[in-house]
Specification:
By secondary structure, the protein is α+β, with helices and mostly antiparallel strands. The protein has helices spanning about 25-40, 45-50, 125-135; strands at about 5-10, 55, 60-65, 75-85, 90-95, 105-110, 115. Strand 4 (about 75-85) and strand 5 (about 90-95) form a beta hairpin.
Length: about 140
Amino acid sequence: MALPSIEIQVEVPFHDVDAMAVVWHGHYLKYLELARCALLRSFAYDYPEMRASGYVWPIVECQLKYLRPARYGQRLRLRATLIEYENRLRIDYLLLDATNGERICKAQSTQVAVHLESGEMSLVSPPVLFERLGVPVPQ
C-alpha cells in the first residue's frame, strides 16, 4: 500500500516574520499543522473524526531541521507524508520554495493514540485508523 502524501501551499504572512525579516522559528510548527490536517483529511481521519472515534492524538515528538530562511510573501510548498501508522502516527514534512523548489525546512512529527475517556495511551493504533487507511487490522 502506498502511504498517503499531500501537498499544500501557503504564503508567509507579515505577522510570521521577526525583526530579522525572516519567519520566526516557532511559526514553522503552524505550517506543519496545516499540512498535517490536510493529510489527515485525505483519509477522513482529521481531528474531529479522531475525537468522534474515541481517541485524541497528541504530538509527543517533533523534530525540525531549518535549512534556509523563509521570508514575508514567499510562497511555500509543504509536503506531508505518513510514514508509520501501526503503533503511532509518524509524519515526514518537507517545506520548499514554491517557485524554485529550494528546501526550506524538513521535519517529522509523532503522535500517539490516547483513549478519550480513560486518558490511557494506546500501545497500538486503534482499528478505526486502519479502516480509514483501507488496510487490514493486524492480528
